Amino acid sequence: MPTPYVIAGPDGTPTDAPCRHADQVRDVAPSTTEGCEDCLREGTRWVHLRMCLSCGHVGCCDSSPRRHAREHWNGTAHPIIASREPGEDWAWCFPEEALLLPRST
Description:
alpha+beta, 2 helices, 7-stranded antiparallel beta sheet, 7 strands
């Protein structure tokens, strides 16, 4: 089965290059639909939400004060997050530092 994401090229369009970590993407449900689960617990704020595609953890982006999505990666080594923002369908691979886009069908 092909990987669900491919690496974006310099111009932001999908390439044929697969992400080496895409085999770790799972069909997961978000850990919460209320916001960043860590910010909710701490009483802090977030800017944008990201979901771990290995376990469903919902964390805040690097523009947020606490950067919980990155903290989750650092603590678990789960490599890929997807945007939880309406209308966005991209993902990010932390180890490859690569923007991922859905594979064209």
